[in-house]
Amino acid sequence: MTTLDTAPPAVPQARTTARAWRTLRSSRTALVGLAIVGVHTLIALLAPLLTSYDPIANDPSHALLGSSWSHWAGTDQYGRDVLTRVLYGGRYALGVSVVATVIALAIGTVIGCAAALRGGWFDDVLGRILDAVLSVPAILALLVVVTALGTGPAVIVIAVAVVFVPQVVRVVRGAALAVVPADYVTAARARGERTWSILWREVLPNIADVVCVEFAMRASWVVLLISSLSFLGFGADPPTPDWGLMVAENRTAITVVPMASLAPIIALATLVVGLNLAADGLSKAWGVDRIREGS
Amino acid sequence: MAPIVSVNSLCVSYRSGGRDVPVVHDVSFEVAEGRTLALVGESGSGKSTVAATLLGHLRHGSRLDGGSVRVDGKDVFALSVPELRRLRGGTVAMVGQNAGHALTPSMRVGRQIAEAGGEVPVLDLLEQVRLPRPADLARRYPHELSGGQQQRVAIAMALAARPKVLVLDEPTTGLDVVTQRGILDLVTALRDELGLAAVLVSHDLGVVARMADEVSVLRSGWVVESAPTRTLFAGAQHAYTKRLLASVPRLTDDGLALVGENGEREVRAKAVVDADAPVAVSATDVTIDYGTARAVHGVSFDVRRGEIVALVGESGSGKSTLAWSLAGLRAPSGGTMSHGSGDLAKPARGRPTALRRLVQLVFQNADTSLNPRRTVGDAIRRPLRFFGTAPDRRQAATRALDLIRDVRLDPALADRLPAQLSGGQRQRIGIARALAGEPDVLIADEITTALDVSVQAEVLRLLDDLRRERQLACLFISHDLAVVRGIADRVLVLRQGVVVEEGPTEAVFADPAHPYTRELMAAALEPDPDAEPFVEAAPEWLDAAEPDDVWADHGDGHRVRRWRPASTSVPEGVS
Amino acid sequence: MLVFVARRLAAAIGTLLLSSVLVFLALQALPGDVATQILGKDATPDAVAALRKQLGLDQPAWERYFDWIKGAVHGDFGTSLVSGKPVGSEVAQYLGNSALIAVVTIVFAVTGSLVLGILAGLYRDRWADHVISTASLVGMSVPEFVVATVLVLCFSVALPWFPAVVLYGPDASVGQLLPAVWLPALALAIVMAAYIVRMARTSVIDVMASEYVTTARLKGLSTWRVVTRHALPSALLPTLHVIALNVAWLVGGVAVVENVFNYPGIGKLMLTSVQNRDLPVVQAVALISAVVYVVCNLAADLGAMALNPKLRTRGRT
């Protein structure tokens, strides 16, 4: 008996995570993006060690100073060190965004998968409701919730999560729909497996990459939205160090101390660029075309 | 006479993962005017890459490493952009594999043909490719045409500028046999009429035997053998070519062909099914609907333990629908389906686990039937645990390795992901997974369609071995009559959801009595340039079955749906 | 084809009704009683009850909903709790001002981004693509208020070409507002274009790699013809929906940008009415946003029908 049927060169045992990591390492874009986000996270965590100033204590005698050795990025109108506030600012932006994104993604993934797997009327009704929710601008919904329930981080986290769930559902549903007709899902159905088991064993592992990319991209949107909210005065309460709020506070003095506005802008932009690069790189490395997924 | 196409020591490589992978090595051939050369090979042989170079085309990421391609005296890779444009269409034209993808979806087909240039009016071209009502057809969009019509349009488009060389890249792959025969006849006629030279790329040795004057056999980018068609088919020199030829199933085989290392061919006699073998699964008057469309209409059959029953038909005949319904994936709308230990009319979820495990389905496409994120071992262990055939984790692991061995694979593959296996290996794993439930009924839905011919031979043999070892009742779905002849004990021929002929394989092939069966057999191509059609072509016919008189009995279980010759001749139908 | 259009239209109206219910319910569910808010904490219970009756708050929610919708269909959105003027005409005035920005933004963002996106897709992995892709990545990484602030810094402070803030009220004439339109429009266009550029690029790359584009090339057609006739109709299809979503996004986007420039548009109105808890105005603005969203998506679907004969000829074969 002949064997014309040869296997591709043997590869040592490969686990899914190991493979994901290998492809990830091959993408410079993703690595750069993740590195930027990592640096931001570190800075936010280590902020108290990196600076000796207090981010919220006023010091009128040092108001509106330019860059100097003692205040690298100058001080704002209340005499607070700008650099210190920028370093601390990442805590609010990252903390709120990450928690909100995780919640939105968790809920959205479950609903999206269920819709794809169930189909039929459940999918139709869900589609209508999501469309209706999406038709109200996110920022308006957030403004209303915040004015009604206050600006505490918990309120913002929940509001942002709710606003973003429909979009996550759409993306995940689209990705899951591509997986559901596959024969291995059919095989599981023919075996008589429960819906949950199919979801967990067959569908989720195959859309994990989409969900990861979605996380990075959604997080970048959440960061932008929350900073916009703070800028408008509906987000972080003064004197919390927050980048959006800092731009709003220092914008009027932009000609006097430009660094007070520019520093938080640079911090914000680099974080979002990092997230976007990570999303881009991951989607390319894993073959997920996130834009086509209908964001 | 100087050759119109001459390829000299062509080398092409493809850039992948940061390094160059050579895909074509030192390929040379010539084609004289009016002659047809076939490039034959299995997947990954580089045949399509070579064909595209005749038009000066390389895939994104591919690079010419050496050699030259001259067409009509010009070196195509040395041409300027305007010259290359004149060459394409004007001198060489290409007909691709899948016309459904090759036609621009947003443009009417008439316009697409017209812009290919040339003085021949579009309607004349459409008439030339034997399409009915050309004026109406030219105004349609590609999606409004059938697969055969799309391929004819693609041919008309290629011929529009009256080229001298036609490149045909798997022009009939994916089409039904009868449609394929029509397209091949058309290409032959046009080639002779217009005096074209042709380069045909194909994996199908039947197509090659019928069309080509000369053949080059490619394997992994190397030419292993070149010879005039008759010489090659009469006495191939290279062992690979011999094995390839020997692996092709034939309509005349009355058993499974076993192929040796050097292409020796031995037909193994079929296993004898015990006269008192119990019926494992039986269907009576099964009807299946898709919305208002009826896919399967009143089909009945029994499959006994140790027996292989084949359902044969073209696409749309309802054969796969029937298989899926039996596997519990779609509830029938009428009739009964039963297994020795229970009712099969209910969908999988409604069946008791013990019954579900006894009826198992193997899928057509092994690439999509295994979860790409789970190891092969996982794929087999899951049903072992789910059906309780292995009581605990440790035993499941051992049993999984046994099953992998049972399908003649190395148990070390258990830790691989499906993407790390070849197509044939994946299909074997698909079979192993189906066997995990220790079924007595196996439904094989076109399991060799996506495989190369040599791999197909091995998988067929495995299936035949397994049914002997395990006394499996096997429902074998296929469109390929030659495959069916070698493996099945009984055959049902389906046409548009209706059985037109059924009986023991030998009886049906010895005396095909229904015109549709004859049509299918006449259209099948044998790997032999001098092959006569297996049967005479069928007359035009009409269905003549009455509710109380459906069958004409030919004895020994061979029966044929009643029909009568059509009195008036129907204009040539183009599918 | 008519069936298809009719079905889409019915779906659009359904979505609209559903979102009006959602908006209404969400605002009803807000804590705090409107009457108490208007009259202050010290109001007598009698006065509150009288005001509730006057505002119709004593009726069941579904009746108030139908009254509201009935009025909305006729352009009557009730009375503003703050200014006491009819909400309909007030919103219309602000909306008109915003439309000025929106038209300029859409014209520049859509045409510009399509051209850039298609160029980047066609010259994939060359320098033009790298420049465009990087610029669009930056564009989508910077929030609107930052773009607006930077633009003010450049074109109002450094180069005093445009006004940094608008000093007119909502009743300003087009002539008065015109000089102030450009910077907000530019800020919005930059953010919006980034997404469209990326989508157009991806879909052009996909389509250029398709078999039918290869076939068209191998027919010996010129690149221009291959791109315009064979590739673009299909490449624009997915882009259409992204454009629609972004146009709908403008309604929210203007909120921030108009605030930066103190521009008297719908975004500014949204902000102040939320701050003042002027529920009738908030409801009206939300409903109008929903209408914009639904109309944009409907337009994209109809556009897709024009580009895709599969949708147009459905039911003919």
Write structural notes for this entry.
The complex is a heterotrimer of chains A (295), B (575) and C (317). Chain A has 10 helices and no strands. The longest helix of chain A has 37 residues, at 82-118. In chain A, 70% of the residues lie in helices and 0% in strands. Chain A is mainly alpha-helical and 295 residues long. By secondary structure, chain B is an alpha/beta fold. Chain B has a domain at 370-432. Chain B is built from 21 helices and 26 strands. An 8-stranded mixed beta sheet of chain B has the order 18-19-20-15-21-22-25-24, sandwiched between helices. A 6-stranded mixed beta sheet of chain B has the order 6-7-8-3-9-10, with helices on both faces. In chain B, helix 15 crosses helix 16 and helix 15 runs parallel beside helix 17 (423-435). The two termini of chain B are 39 Å apart. Mean pLDDT of chain B is 89; it is low at 570-575. With 317 residues, chain C is mainly alpha-helical. In chain C, helix 8 runs antiparallel to helix 10 and helix 11 packs antiparallel against helix 12. Chain C starts with a helix and ends in a 5-residue tail after the last helix. The mean pLDDT of chain C is 84. Chains in contact: A-B, A-C, B-C. The interface between A and C is large, with 45 and 56 residues. Chain A: It comes from Streptomyces cylindrosporus. Chain A: Residues 90-277 form the ABC transmembrane type-1 domain. Chain A: The chain crosses the membrane at residues 29-50, 92-117, 129-148, 215-236, 256-278. Chain A: It is found in: Cell membrane. Chain A: This is ABC transporter permease.
